[in-house]
Amino acid sequence: MRILASDPVAEKGLNILREEGFIVDEKIKLSEEELIKIIPQYDALIVRSETKVTARIIEAAENLKIIGRAGVGVDNIDLAAASKKGIIVVNSPEGNTIAAAEHTIALMMALLRNIPQAHAALKAGKWLRKEFTGYELRGKTVGIIGLGRIGTAVAKRVKAFETRVIGYDPFISEERAQMLGITLMPLEELLQNADIVTMHLPLNNETRNLINRERLKLMKKSAFIINCARGGIIDEEALYEALKAGEIAGAALDVFAKEPLTESPLFELQNVIVTPHLGASTKEAQINVAIDVAREIANVLKGGLAQNAVNFPAMDKESYQRLKPYINLAEKLGNFLAQILSGGLLAAEIVYNGLAFKEETRPLTLAALKGLLDPLLMEKVNYVNAPVVAKERGIKVRETVMENGADYTNLITLKVTTEKGERIIAGTLFRNNEPRIVQIDQYRVDVVPEGYKLFVPHKDQPLMIGRVGLILGEKGINIAGMQLGRLTPGGDAVMVLSLDHPADGDSIKAIAEIPGIYEVKAVSL
Ligand SMILES: NC(=O)c1ccc[n+]([C@@H]2O[C@H](COP(=O)([O-])OP(=O)(O)OC[C@H]3O[C@@H](n4cnc5c(N)ncnc54)[C@H](O)[C@@H]3O)[C@@H](O)[C@H]2O)c1
Ligand SMILES: O=C(O)[C@H](O)COP(=O)(O)O
């Protein structure tokens, strides 16, 4: 399999992929058209923030299974397009946290002490001291907007400078803020109180131009603002005006609305210092992020699940290990049901009984949907696009979680409604995580969800098993196992045969013609 790195990524990460036997090409600074041309050859794409992974590129990516963002922000990737196409997008949420936090502190100190300006002046032969008198950080109020990984790392570090830290983040609790020693307050209040405001939140439709003209006016005339998160969170035109008019004291910017950026009115202002998106650019961070995404890509390309997928529920290692056998089971249940269904699919309900499902069921639901939809549809369905595909087709998906209420300690039941009625399948894990289908429709069974099966509902009467066995035996198809389920003697029954080879069309037809056989469905798991 082939992997393309279209931005500079640390060799240590790429070598992990090469050692795993993948071919890795490094081609940087490609245009959109160039990428569209070559992307069909690749199974995985690695980017940093420079490559814009547009819907057009994703559309052309016939073989792409995963996009690895060697860093945090995924705003350069069209996530909706990737999800629709079933392409997993992973990032490295922690690999560059410290690099970005330290760069923020570096910018903060440089801004307060005029270091870039003094440096430039002295190198130009000017020994200026009075002009570059700065400010101390001690005793100042630092306002942090966005208290995630980098925001909290910045908080910890500025506290060492004996500052007061205030914060705004609508998604963190008062308790967490208290634990971090940060006073939470509304955005407007933070802007009015902070001596230094620093951004550590993602760019999205809610946060674009969050710091606009009106909000800049709330800040103290003596205040500084830092953006080491994403360009576009501060309105650059409004910032220019506020700085020029002396409404705030200065700004440090690592990121810009349009990148790369080499010319801007902001660059002409003495009280603005800038770096070209260097927040994550340390040797250590680049190795961390490259290794993180390389491991994810290798795992996904070898059939595993991603742990840091942005468009798939994230799981820590422990949850992943615990849930993996259930994820496989859920997929098999969906897959089995898909192969015995008839009629258009209208709705799917997944019921979880048992404590195993107390914390997390989303990956299981996605797996059940993938298993169910993939055999039914022409397009490739995977964990990522399964909900999109279901929604597009108007299939209603419902999830019910109950701590108990079933005959098994932990049970997954998939009920689907088609134009022709309802069908049910249920499964559990036996000892040593051995998966078992324990119910199909109203029948109790004990079927290992693996290999070739024949699902044969029939009338409970003598000779049924014998005649089915004979037809298969004459074709040299060995029956490895058989399960029978019936409701009442002489009533409706079902046999599920496990075969060493798939049954051929003629045998299936011959079995279907046996009087008392209601239907025959070949299932391959
Ligand atoms: N300059 C760089 O090179 C560089 C390096 C790494 C990360 N980043 C950027 O830094 C930012 C933060 O990264 P992180 O790893 O800390 O992410 P994170 O996901 O850990 O934290 C983001 C925080 O922002 C908060 N948030 C979301 N919307 C908000 C809003 N409207 N107002 C206030 N808070 C809001 C979230 O609740 C979360 O706590 C991201 O934009 C990331 O892309 C930049
Ligand atoms: O979101 C990130 O991780 C940073 O902005 C880093 O971007 P980069 O990988 O292009 O340096």
UniProtKB/TrEMBL annotation:
Assigned EC number: 1.1.1.95
The Swiss-Prot or TrEMBL record annotates one GO molecular function as: phosphoglycerate dehydrogenase activity
The UniProt record lists the keyword NAD? yes
Record's keyword terms, sorted: Amino-acid biosynthesis, NAD, Oxidoreductase, Serine biosynthesis
Keyword field contains Oxidoreductase: yes
Q: Which reaction does it catalyse?
A: (R)-2-hydroxyglutarate + NAD(+) = 2-oxoglutarate + NADH + H(+); (2R)-3-phosphoglycerate + NAD(+) = 3-phosphooxypyruvate + NADH + H(+)
Q: What does this protein do?
A: Catalyzes the reversible oxidation of 3-phospho-D-glycerate to 3-phosphonooxypyruvate, the first step of the phosphorylated L-serine biosynthesis pathway. Also catalyzes the reversible oxidation of 2-hydroxyglutarate to 2-oxoglutarate.
The segment(s) forming the ACT domain are: 453-525
Its name, as the record gives it, is: D-3-phosphoglycerate dehydrogenase
State which pathway it belongs to.
Amino-acid biosynthesis; L-serine biosynthesis; L-serine from 3-phospho-D-glycerate: step 1/3
Q: Which GO terms describe its biological process?
A: L-serine biosynthetic process
Q: Which family does it belong to?
A: Belongs to the D-isomer specific 2-hydroxyacid dehydrogenase family.
